[in-house]
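Researcher: We're teaching a course module on how sequence relates to structure. For the next exercise, students receive a sequence and then see the predicted structure as tokens, so they can try to spot secondary structure elements on their own. Here is the exercise chain.
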Amino acid sequence: MPGPDQQRLTPDERANLVAYLDGELPDAVARVIATKLTMSATARRELEALEKTWELLEHLPRPQPSPEFTARTLTEVQKLSLAGDEFESAMRRRLQHALRAVLWMAASLVALGVGYALTQWAWPNPTERLARDLSIAEHLDEYRDVGSFEFLEELAHSPEFSGGAN
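Model: And here is the predicted structure for the students to work with:
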């Protein structure tokens, strides 16, 4: 087992070395790496190798993009921007259609409710009329047998029904 001065960095610590050098790690993780770097010469060598690699990369020539690359990039950005605008306008149209459909449904429900209320309160109910005129309906056959008011007047003046008052 290696001594504390020969401990290597773990793969996670090695992956965090660049962030450690840039000061982008949370304090707890940065302290763990700093402690290991102060205790282990092997870990310090890994850090120094990484620093030298970054220094050498700075000396390499940087490739310059061609003018076509810039034009293509700007064209693609414009296409994406237009596609985004088309998406937004399509979504806006769909939302307007959905809102219009909801409003029509609400208006239909209100019209249905008003129509129902009118038929219940304003329209005459034939069942109520029959119930009100039930006594007439029960004696309808007898009324039909009478035939006319003249017959009823004769009965009213006859001694059997008048009670002898005439």
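Model: If you want an answer key for the exercise: Residues 126-159 form one domain. The CA atoms of residues 46 and 159 lie 139 Å apart.
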